[in-house]
Amino acid sequence: MACWVEELDFPRLEIPVTIDGIGHVLSDFNLAAAHQGTTLYLSNLDDMIGVRLFTPTVYFYQPQGDEPVAQILRDALTKVLVPYYPFTGRIRETENGKLEIFFGPNQGALLVEAHSDVPFVDLGDLSVPNPAWMNLIYRFPNEEQYKVVDMPLVIAQVTKFTCGGFSLGLRICHCLCDGLGAMQFLSAWAETAKAGSLVVNPKPCWDREVFLPRNPPKIQFSHTEFKRIDDGSTLAKTLWQGKPVQKCYRMSREFQARLKILAQTGESSCTTFDATAAHVWRCWVKALDVKPLDCEHRLTFSVNAREKMRDTPLKDGFYGNALCVACATSTIESLVKGCLADTSRLVREARLGVSEEYLRSTLDYIDLYRPKRLEFGGKLTITQWTRFSIYEAADFGWGKPIYAGPIDLTPTPQVCVFLPEGGAEPSGTMLLCICLPEFGSHGFKELLLSN
């Protein structure tokens, strides 16, 4: 059974990176003249506190000879930014803290060219996300964390290595798109690079007004996911006791299937996500030895609301945020002493609780209260990337990337990510990335393997 879960190591290193050039990327069409002075509405799902950030990802590619990869990426981006013109604008804050996109002079996306005087082999295993790769993502000097106002909405860095391989470090503003929307944009960029001419399928659709709040607002649910929890447990102290470290585990398809079987009850069936999320939640709390047992703890995760929109279905090509935050709540005692099936049932109920009515209530809740800070106390957040075809979407004509995905979780150690594993053919294997203090990591692995 041990082979079903494998801990993956990555080296602690510093990657030397030299910036060779920084330039704005405008579209083939004169968007500045066409849209200058206009604005675009962002829905309350686009500008809620949890998405006011950039999502950093990195993609590694094998050597391509003397092919001018940076120029190919730049040329394709100029074409894609015509139908995806909102990415050329900037975000500003309006009254009551609401965000909107505006268009003005000297905007556009940003493309950075860089090089590193090391080969890929010095970076270790490129299939395992490593916080050391952050140098491959461009950040402005003294940039504030979570800053989105007056920032380029697409920031790309192409870094060439001495072996001929290269990386694409990408930051896309989450306010414009959720994960599925980002894959749609990335795929259009990649297909355009391969074809040498604009390819968009489906045609991008903005249509954020479909998520306008109601007047008067009608809040039908408690929306615990946005509320602060009075965390009287030892969780925060334990997690930060010593610097949290990022750990990665490879979980085979067979192991995930085994969890799903163990999590089933006679009353209802669960999904692989329900079972795996419940198992990770329980293991994390146990490994951190959270006390006291009567404290409440939350598990939050995003649910794609596209398929929930029965009364007002979204148009094909919609790439905005269409996510609701589901929240499962349990006492520490139930997580530690209960069974997997019980915890899995809580996850399932939270997931199925997201409906079109829940989404509309979320929009109204945000409009009325507009939460100002991310609440990490007393909870674990799981982000599921296994539903994204990120390796297929990022094929710019150079084959699938060696690795595609996020990099560093340590700034938000109460966030866990489920990632698809790369490779020529999908195997169903999942990478679990999570943060733990060093003293809890061994116990966590043992707990993962236990029933």
From TrEMBL:
Enzyme class: transferase
E.C. numbers: 2.3.1.188
Keyword Transferase among record annotations: yes
InterPro entries found in the cross-reference section: CAT-like_dom_sf, Plant_Fungal_Acyltransferase
Transferase in keyword set: yes
Record's keyword terms, sorted: Acyltransferase, Transferase
One Pfam family recorded for the sequence: Transferase
GO molecular function, one term: omega-hydroxypalmitate O-sinapoyl transferase activity
Family affiliation: Belongs to the plant acyltransferase family.
Name of the protein described by the UniProt record: Omega-hydroxypalmitate O-feruloyl transferase
Organism: Salvia divinorum (Maria pastora)
